[in-house]
Amino acid sequence: MLALLLLVFLSSAGSARAANNGMVHQIPASEYNALLDLYNSTNGPGWADNDGWQNPNALQWHGVVVEGVEYFDNGDVKTKGHVDAITFDANQLTGTIPSTLGSLSALRFLYLAGNHLTGSIPSSLGNLAKLEGLNLGGNQLTGAIPSWPANLTSLASIQLAQNQLTGAIPSSIGDLAALEFLDLGDNQLSGQIPSSIGNLHSLKHFSAENNQLTGAIPTSIGGLASLQVLWLQNNQLTGPIPSSIGNLGALQWLRLNDNQLSGSIPDTIGNLTALEILDLYNNTLSSSIPGSIGNGVRQDTRPADPVLFR
Q1: Who's near 226: CB < 8 A, 6+ residues apart?
Q2: Phi, psi of 41 (to 5 degrees)
Q3: pTM attached to this predicted model
Q4: 165-194 pLDDT per residue, tens
Q5: Residues near 87 by Cβ (< 8 Å), separated by ≥ 6?
Q6: How far is the C-alpha of 123 from the C-alpha of 35, rounded, in Å?
Q7: CA-to-CA separations, 54 to 23, 35, 36, 67, 104, in angstroms, rounded
Q8: Which pick of 144, 220, 293, 310 has the fewest CB atoms within 10 Å?
Q9: 117 with 7, same domain?
Q10: What is the DSSP letter of 246?
């Protein structure tokens, strides 16, 4: 009898150890509620993987990383932490992104690519001052790209490709000083490329292909000294290729094909010694690739304009 009582006591103690360390105890109530909003607004029961999400006392929820939690010796939560990352790439999310995600004050990574999300990108994501990576590509998002505030000083990557976004690229994007990767391709964006893009001195990749962008390529693009990839093909860009493009000494891929560019190809393209691929096909350019483009580079030609590969 004594042994049985001892067993019951130990079992009860074990249960107590696990009573106050689940997700509901690990993070502030506002963050917990924001996660529930995500679950409810994107058909959580239909996700490919929703492990833990239906149990507030589960220690982990699939796709959620929590940092900064401190525990008592018995395993209970002593100090709450914060949601650090949400990663749900290709997890069959449907519905809309809840605006309450903007309350996740410590969030660094929000990856919701390759799902079936609809609606607009909440402007409240601009409150995520610690955000470093945002990937919403490969969904069915509509509406305009929000005007990102300058306080997103850590944001290094924005991937919004393969949606149905409309409107112009906001000029405020030039305030994101830490940005290294910007992919806006395969949307329905219109208007001109803002000259503020030239302020992004850390930018390595800029792609906005397969949109409806118009106007000239801004001369300020020559200020992107770190740029390695520039894809602007299949838009409605007009005017000449700016000579300032020759300042992009790190550039490896330059695709401007299938636009309405005119004038001469600037000799300064010959300064692009790191260039591997140059595609200017299907424009109305009046000259050929400058002979100064570099040694060891094989030139192939398609009708109307040259294309260059290494």
Answers
A1: 180, 201, 202, 203, 204, 250
A2: -85, -10
A3: 0.90
A4: 999 999 999 999 999 999 999 999 999 999
A5: 63, 65, 109, 111
A6: 17
A7: 11, 11, 9, 21, 20
A8: 310
A9: yes
A10: G
pLDDT in tens, 22-67: 999 999 999 999 999 999 999 999 999 999 999 999 999 999 999 9
When divided into structural domains, the chain yields a total of: 2
Banded model confidence at residue 289, pLDDT cuts 50, 70, 90? confident
pLDDT at residue 295 above 70? no
Question: Over 70: is that where the pLDDT of 13 sits?
Answer: no
Label residue 122 left, alpha or beta by phi (over 0 means left) and psi (-120 to 50 means alpha).
Answer: beta
Amino acid at 163: N
What distance in Å separates the CA atoms of residue 127 and residue 101, rounded to the nearest whole number? 9
Contact 192, 208 (CB under 8 A): no
Q: Are residues 135 and 30 in the same domain?
A: yes
- 301 within a domain of the structure (yes/no): yes
What pLDDT score was predicted for residue 64?
Answer: 98
Does residue 273 sit in the same domain as residue 137? Answer: no
Q: What would the mean pLDDT of 203-224 be, rounded to a whole number?
A: 98
Phi and psi for 98 in degrees, rounded to 5? -70, 145
Nearest by Cα to 134 from 151, 166, 101, 112: 112
In the structure encoding, which two tokens stand for residue 147, read together? 């005007």
Least confident of 1-5, 41-45, 118-122, 126-130: 1-5
The answer to whether residue 148 sits within a structural domain is no
The answer to whether position 86 is within a domain reads yes
Asked if residue 124 is part of any domain, the answer here is: yes
Helix, strand, or coil (residue 16): helix
**Which domain does 218 fall in, by range?**
163-168+189-201+210-310
On whether both 117 and 9 belong to a single domain, the answer is yes
Does 224 lie in the same domain as 123? Answer: no
